[in-house]
Amino acid sequence: MHLHYFAEAYNLSRKQAVKVQCLMPANARSHAVLTTESKVTIRGQTTIPAPVREALKLKPGLDNIHYEILPGGQVFMCRLGDEQEDHTMNAFLRFLDADIQNNPQKTRPFDIQQGKKLVAGMDVNIDDEIGDDE
């Protein structure tokens, strides 16, 4: 499990980005049950220490982590809860996965030229939010 640090996005110095002061709000630090650390690789990645993964009940490959950068260079990190999941979409993706596994003969390459014809003339901004009614 890896973390990526993007110092440039927050105008942080390399030293601040590499040396995360804590993974909780400052007022909670005095109540820490356990402290641990990890090294940041040259690629800006780190392994989440086992005690942190266990405390957050992180499941590799399944869970997502939410970060908040606080004043003073502190970072709050928590596991996104199940309420963030789209159960309908997950069920649909499981259905597709099972269908592909059980019927590989039905899977065929997508014709990119046909796809371009289908979306020709559409004005799409990939950065726009998609509302619930769309």
Automatic annotation (TrEMBL):
The keyword DNA-binding applies. It holds the Pfam family PrlF_antitoxin. This is HtrA suppressor protein. Keywords: DNA-binding. Residues 35-82 form the SpoVT-AbrB domain. It comes from the Bacteria. The gene is sohA. GO terms for molecular function: DNA binding; DNA-binding transcription factor activity; toxin sequestering activity. InterPro entries: PrlF_antitoxin (IPR031848), SpoVT-AbrB_dom (IPR007159), SpoVT-AbrB_sf (IPR037914). SUPFAM superfamilies: AbrB/MazE/MraZ-like. One of its GO terms (biological process) is regulation of cell growth. It comes from Escherichia coli. The lineage of its organism: Bacteria, Pseudomonadati, Pseudomonadota, Gammaproteobacteria, Enterobacterales.
